[in-house]
């Protein structure tokens, strides 16, 4: 048990370190690109580039949220927070969604104002160079952060990854818009592209907010993960497990919580039943690393009907006929 615990602790430490490094890299890249695009946007007069700079400013704040929430969520449970601090990541993701939506609204305002003016000049050269650099940097960062988000299962990093992918799309779209302005000498492509980007940002905000809200509201784990838990229980049917019921699951940040009622042989000793529970916990945690498993033991005296009940009834009938 001690060796298993040490292994899980080492894995958890690795996940946390990778998540923190990913959040720090995201913050550094967003801050640098924000300064670059803000300067270029002001100098060129492009509302699309300036809007992209505003979004990078939001990304910088969002990266800070992700970094701080991961640090907070990694804190162990205490007297005031017996279930830990995992929901800090979900709250940070929801805040990121609001930031993205706010940026989309600001871009809509700037684009509409530019459509009404129409008599401005845009210097496309510096903008194209700056956005090409932005695209390359963002692709490199988002590939690293998305890999880090998959390993820790961090909802904050996943939200940050979605936001970074919007940056890649934005850079490509702004490059296209500036290229059209340069080719046609018609500045309308600049605000039109800004409006398209705003619509994409608002859609992304909705997706991020929905995911975060699901975890805040304790939505169950995905069906395939619950089926995985049931298969783990099925593996122990020959060791005294008679059935189970009241399976409940949820997730807070990177932490999964699993609890259920386990039906065992009434003649089994308390020590044997406890060892069985330990074995089941290890099996589930091997498939869902870091999961907190809480098992309520009950004697299989016929009072409860779990998912295996009909199967057992059918087996009993076949034995009677035999």
Number of separate domains: 2
- CATH class of the largest domain, please? Mainly Alpha
- CATH topology value of the largest domain: Alpha-lytic protease prodomain-like
Instruction: List segments where confidence is low: pLDDT < 50 over at least 5 consecutive residues.
Output: 1-11, 315-321
Taking Cα atoms only, what radius of gyration do you get, to the nearest Å?
A: 26 Å
Oligomer: single chain
- Record field, number of beta strands: 3
Task: Summarize the entry for a quick read.
The protein is 71% helix and 9% strand. The protein is built from nine helices and three strands.
What does the model show?
By secondary structure, the protein is mainly alpha-helical. The protein has two domains: about 1-215, Cation efflux protein transmembrane domain (Alpha-lytic protease prodomain-like, Up-down Bundle), CATH 1.20.1510.10; about 225-320, Cation efflux protein, cytoplasmic domain (Alpha-Beta Plaits), CATH 3.30.70.1350. It has helices at about 1-45, 45-75, 85-115, 125-150, 155-185, 190-215, 225-235, 270-285, 310-320; strands spanning about 240-250, 255-265, 290-300. Strands 1-2-3 form a three-stranded mixed β-sheet. The longest helix is centred in the first third of the chain and has 43 residues, at about 1-45. The two termini are about 45 Å apart.
